[in-house]
Design a protein that fits this description.
Elements lengths: L6 H16 L10 H15 L3 E2 L15 E2 L5 H13 L31 H4 L4 H19 L4 H7 L2 H4 L10 H8 L32
Parallel strand pairs: 1-2
Helix pairs in contact: 1-8, 2-3, 3-5, 5-6, 5-8
This protein binds zinc ion (ZN).
Zinc ion (ZN) binds next to helix 3 and helix 5.
Amino acid sequence: MSKYISLELASRQLADRLLDEAEGYSLKKDKAEAGVRKKALSLLRKTGIRYREKTPPTVGANWTGTFAAIGGLEATDVLHELAHYQCSPPKWRRYPEFGLGMGPDVGLDQAMPGGNLRESDYGTDSPTEEEERASLLGIMWERHLGLESWAHTIEYHNWINLIPAWSGGDPVPQFVWLMRTGLLTTEGEPVLALRTKRKAPYREWGNKNETV
Ligand SMILES: [Zn+2]
């Protein structure tokens, strides 16, 4: 791939590649699960993310604001927490669930113990955007580490419906954001780095002249 390809184009090509690769996947026991989970834990350690292996999530919170409670969680969920931590504005990391509130899978509409961010705190980073970025980055970690079931996760997280233009040739803004912040290469390889600033890396996508 050319070094001067735009991030918009790179995001589109990556999305198309993923769809091709994921086609025909049928859910089965992933033999790589245990090995990938171990690698995921090693990534948490390298990144300085604290976790407790024997503490299950409480009240639906995998991230307590201090450590990841990963007792009983599968590799996909551990990698999702890693991705959340990477994408999160630094200050949000001290909130349970990164201040995003309960996940949709919990089905509870209530404040997190320890506090939620107020809507005015979100600025350009809406909870939905944060969730989508973490979802895609986590999926790219799964794929990178050889977890075959990443193809299931991409469907489970509803990406095919979330991006109406999925097959229409349009850029994928979440990928553009991840590439721009340096958390994902234009080839789709995740980078073990952390977002360090509140706003700096984020701009509305659509600058067609931007190169990498
Ligand atoms: Zn999440």
